[in-house]
Amino acid sequence: MTNAKTHNQALHCFMCSNKISSAPLSYNDIGWTTNEQFLSLKIYFCSFCTFAFAFPELNPEDIHSYYAEQYRSPKSTFYINFNKKVIPEINDLYNNRSFAQLTLARSFCTFDHGDSFLDIGPGKGGSFIIANAIFPAPALHAIELSKEADEYYKKNFNTTSHLSLTNFSKGERKAKIILMSHSLEHFCMSDLDILFKNIQTALHDEGVLVIEVPNVNMQVHQYVRGPDTPHLLFFTPKSLKALLIKYKFKVLFIDTCGPLYNLKKHESSVHPALLKKIFNNMPHRIQIYSRTIVRFFRLVWKYIQKPLELISRNSTSTTLPNHSYGGERKALRLIAKVDHE
Questions:
Q1: Distances in whole angstroms, Cα of residue 308 to Cα of each of 115, 271, 296, 313, 330
Q2: CA atoms within 13 A of residue 258's CA, in its CB half-sphere
Q3: Model pLDDT, residue 313
Q4: Which residues on neighbouring strands pair with residue 45, listed in sequence order?
C-alpha cells in the first residue's frame, strides 16, 4: 500500500484483502492541529472484517521522530515531566489496569525467578510496579524512544530500555511476558510485518504476548469514540484476533474490557464534527490546557465516585472495570503465544 492511493476505490483491506467500499470517515485530530502529518488523514473501514485504518500511510521515519521528540514534549497534550515525576502510588491495586493484564497473563504461563518482562511503550511505568509486586525478581525491560522516559525507568525501576525489539533480542534474550498496552494502535500498517516477526524472536517459547487496544468498531462507535490522534489502527475483537492469526500466533484469550461505552451519548450531544471544528480553531496552548483540565476533572470524579459505588454496592462491572469483560466496552484485551504447529 502506497501513498499514491488516495481514494477508497484504490484501497484494499490490509487484514482480509477485500476492497474498501465504505466512504472514508473524518480523522479526529483534536489537539494536534499544528502537526501537519495528521491533518491529511482519513479513516477507512472494512465492512468484511471490521478493521479500520488511517490513510494515507505516514512516513515511518516521521513517526519515529514524532515519538522520540514530540509525543512527550512540553508542547504535547501527552506531556509527562519525567524529570520531576516520582514513582506513582498504586492506590487501587485490584482495579489497576496493569494488575489486571499481568495477572491474566500469568494464568497462561509460568514466571520464574529472574525471567524477563518486556513492556513496549510503558508510559508512566505502572506495569513495572505491578511486575515487581507479583513476579519473583523480574528482569524489567522497555522499548522506549524517549530519553527522559528511559532515564526515569532506569532510576526508579532499574529497567533496561531498548530502542527496538532487535536490540532487546541481542544475546538470545527472551521475554516470558511481552506487554503492548495501548501501543499497537500507534503503529503503521507497513510496520506490522517486522513488528510481529521481532516479537516472535523476542518471546520465550513458553511465554505470552499481552495486547490491549481501544475497542473501536466504526459501525458502532463512530460517534462515541474519543480523539483519534495519534492512533493509526482501529480494532474490533474480530479484526484483532485475525491479525494475530495472520502472524502465526495462537490466541488464548480475547474479550472486551474496561468501562462500558455510552452508546446513547451522541443522541443528546453536539455533533463531534462541530466540536472538532470549534476546538481545532482554538490556540494550540488552549487546546492543551483544555484537555489537561478535562483529564483532571475525570480523575477527581473517579475518586469521588469510588466511595459512592461502594456505598451503593454497585456490581463488579462498575466498580472493577479493568477486571470486567464482555459487552460494548472501550478496550480489547488479548493473550497469545507463538503457534509452533
A1: 41, 31, 19, 8, 22
A2: 20
A3: 43
A4: 52
Residue 79: CB atoms within 10 Å? 14
Structural domain boundaries in the chain = 8-338
Cα distance between residue 170 and residue 174, in whole Å: 9
pLDDT digits (tens, 9 = 90+) for 275-316: 656 666 666 667 667 767 876 776 676 666 555 554 444 444
What residue ranges of the chain have pLDDT lower than 70? 1-10, 30-35, 85-92, 265-285, 287-288, 291, 295, 298-299, 301-319
203, with CB counted inside 10 A (0-12, 13-18, 19+), is: buried
54 touches 228 (CB < 8 A): yes
**Helix pair 284-312, 272-280: axis angle to 10 deg:** 130
The Cα–Cα gap between 252 and 272 comes to 37
Q: Classify domain 8-338 by CATH architecture.
A: 3-Layer(aba) Sandwich (3.40)
Residues 224 and 264: their CA atoms lie apart, in Å, by 8
Q: Name the one residue in this structure whose C-alpha cell is 519515529.
A: 64
The pLDDT score that the predictor gives to residue 203 is 98
